[in-house]
Amino acid sequence: MAVDDFQYLPRSFAPTYDAIPPLDEPPVWTAPRRPVAEATVAALTSAGVYLPASQDPFDAERERREPTWGDPSWRSIPATVDHDDIDAVHLHIDTSPLLEDLDVALPLRTLRSLEQDGRIGTVAPTHVSVMGYQERSCAVWRTETGPAIARFLGEIGVEVLLLAPA
């Protein structure tokens, strides 16, 4: 399936992105220390999900002004969240489907089902949301965002992180 990266952005942004060479780095991967069926599992979505009652939205305005920049901050999302408690900010995807069914972007219902079936150990009490389309070098991600998320997940006992890209 072809993805139109500019469906929700002006086509004039395309030359900026097309001029950037693709990354040529291997993915980061660490095997789980114990079987997934015994592990605490969290999910990370890049759909820009946040809790409007208690969290600021991701900064789409700056990205509109600086199209190669992406908000490198992150939000914690409790496992007990209801789809009525969320909103989403993302300039590159249509967020309306995930506002109707959060599992589209943050598969908490699916994780609970896997836990009940014994396919994963435990659903983590908290999950993570970021906004996709980060600046190309990911400098802030490498030095601040990534380590902060890893530290947070380690503190709450997460052993496996499921990435749910938007």
Low-pLDDT segments, ≥5 res: none
In round numbers, the mean pLDDT is 88
Biggest beta-sheet profile: 5 strands, mixed
The figure for the number of domains is 1
H/I helix tally: 5
Global morphology? globular
Share of helix, binned: 25-40%
Strand content: 15-25%
Q: Order of SSEs, N→C?
A: HEEHEEHHEEHE
Task: Evaluate the radius of gyration.
Answer: 17 Å
Tally the beta strands: 7
Based on secondary structure, the structural category is alpha/beta
Report, as a whole number of angstroms, the end-to-end distance.
14 Å
Walkthrough of the structure:
The chain has 166 residues and is an alpha/beta fold. The chain has five helices and seven strands. It is globular and about 50 Å long. The two termini are 14 Å apart. The relative contact order is 0.25. The mean pLDDT is 88.
Main traits of this protein?
globular, 5 helices, 166 residues, alpha/beta
List the helices and strands and how they pair.
Elements (H helix, E strand, L loop, with lengths): L13 H5 L21 E6 L3 E2 L9 H6 L8 E5 L8 E2 L7 H5 L7 H9 L5 E2 L2 E5 L8 H17 L4 E5 L2
Parallel strand pairs: 1-5, 1-6, 1-7
Antiparallel strand pairs: 2-4, 3-6
